[in-house]
Amino acid sequence: MSLLEELQEIFRGVMDNPTLVLTAESNASNVPDWDSLTHVNLMTAIARHFKVKFKLSELQDLKNVGDLINLLQKKLDAN
């Protein structure tokens, strides 16, 4: 399973939307119900699922799901 597929499952669970489809370009402005509270819940769920920790500065630099995948891959490669 690719990181995008794993993230999509996490997003679907957190957002309670089983039909949500993510792409690398997905972001808070083009995904319904992705607000600031949902963002916190998503990042917490992602960190827990992949057993990684995010710095606030890292999260502030993210523009879309593609950036999140790149950051996540770096963290997973470092472990």
Which short descriptors sum up this protein?
globular; mainly alpha; 0% strand; single chain; 79 residues
Please give a structural write-up.
The chain is mainly alpha-helical and 79 residues long. Helices cover 59% and strands 0% of the residues. It has four helices and no strands. Helix 1 crosses helix 2. The radius of gyration is 12 Å and the shape is globular. The mean pLDDT is 96.
- The fraction of residues assigned to DSSP E strands is under 5%
Biggest beta sheet attributes: none
- Global mean pLDDT: 96
How far apart are the termini?
19 Å
Number of strands: 0
Radius of gyration: 12 Å
Total DSSP helices: 4
* Helix/sheet category: mainly alpha
Outline type:
globular
Helix content: 55-70%
Following the backbone from N to C, one meets helices and strands in this order, namely HHHH
